[in-house]
Design a protein that fits this description.
The structure is a homodimer.
Chain A: E1 3-8, H1 21-30, E2 35-40, H2 42-45, H3 48-53, E3 61-64, E4 67-70, H4 72-82, H5 91-105, H6 109-121, H7 128-150, H8 162-171, H9 184-194, H10 197-212
Parallel strand pairs in A: 1-2
Antiparallel strand pairs in A: 1-3, 3-4
Helix pairs in contact in A: 1-4, 1-8, 1-10, 5-8, 6-7, 8-9
Protein name (chains A, B): Glutathione S-transferase family protein
């Protein structure tokens, strides 16, 4: 059975692949699993039919037979557990890969999303500039720690894993800022992720949704 | 071999059990596994020896033989995978339990932690009151959605699971606010979690660290 995921009908980032369906697409491409996509409008996302699958009214979701999931981290982990190639077989290495998935959705993500939300929602507020300095500092602190831990390694812990899908996906949210510039090894890490054929296929698929949604000019 | 976790030597919440070692202790108590605790000072947490285990200089960590982990969600999942009682055996139910663990550290946690951080760090700023209204709204939005989904159920998805440890632990951070008061089913859910003997044993263990650290008066 082919799984069905949901994605934005109208890409809020104009096809930059920052919506969280990107990580799910990438994981499915890495393990060679075809998938169907159901596009949902912002209105439909908040309607009861979608809320029945995703109680918080977001994308992505993942439906495969009787199973329906939300939370991109959980979906990527589910895919990684059911197909070879995204989690190490050795138990301790597997536990560490899952640990890095949690790091990418919790410790690392929190300051990046908070900074981004302020940029989107509070840019016209009197306090914006002063707070942004603090929020940039919070992001830099975590990037510096991640950079030290990554060192010269290609991936977070040994071979490429589901954790790298989540972490590269997160760090890409900073690509339009200068925040990654002080950490050449993180820039190289993101580039390494983006160079993977599976990333490119996933990116192209979500980009096609954006271009298809544009009025013919 | 008995696992060793780390916890704050000096409890920043005066023993209220909001530090993230609480969820790890609770999980270990649920599955009946003894554990050792290494207390770390705020200074030691930032030193190289601790950073070697936790690159972001936080607690808790979990060390068991050759394996060392950080991220409370990952540690609780690791415990749940290795011992019976915290994850359903049926594969789809198991995937949904893990999904709710991700919800507790990602979608639900982000607005709760952001609000809390503003309370701790920005209370003397001119913008605090105006922003707090917005941050309260962000929290209420997610609580409302969670309340609808939980409905009359005892736990997030079927039997008690590792997801409930993470979610109750998160919601407890709101207990000193009035934010939960509009959601009687969430209040009852938190009370249900706190009534579990394993919760009580874990709470007592972390509370003892706080009382032991007090000067004899």
């Amino acid at each position: 059975m082919t799984a069905t995921i949901t994605a934005f009908a109208t890409s809020p980032d104009r096809g930059r692949g920052l919506a969280r369906d990107m990580q799910v697409r990438w994981a499915l491409e890495e393990v060679g699993q075809p998938y169907d996509v159901r596009l949902v409008s912002f209105q439909a996302m908040k309607a009861p039919a979608h809320r029945a699958v995703h109680p918080f009214g977001q994308i992505p979701t993942y439906e495969d037979g009787e199973l329906s999931l939300f939370e991109s981290g959980a979906i990527v982990l589910h895919i990684a557990e059911r197909h070879l190639g995204l989690l190490p077989e050795e138990p301790n290495a597997r536990a560490r890969a899952i640990m890095w998935m949690f790091a990418a959705v919790d410790t690392l993500k929190a300051p990046i999303i908070e900074r981004e939300a302020a940029w989107l929602i509070e840019r016209d507020k009197s306090w914006f500039a002063e707070r942004q300095i603090m929020l940039d500092g919070n992001v830099r602190k975590r990037l510096g720690e991640l950079s030290v831990r990554l060192g010269e390694a290609d991936w977070l812990d040994g071979d490429f894993s589901a954790a790298d899908i989540m972490m590269v996906g997160l760090l890409r949210r900073l690509e339009t800022t200068s925040l990654l510039d002080d950490y050449p090894n993180l820039l190289a890490y993101v580039a390494r992720g983006k160079a993977r054929p599976a990333f490119k296929r996933a990116f192209a698929a979500q980009y096609a949704v954006f271009t298809d949604s544009q009025p013919v000019g």
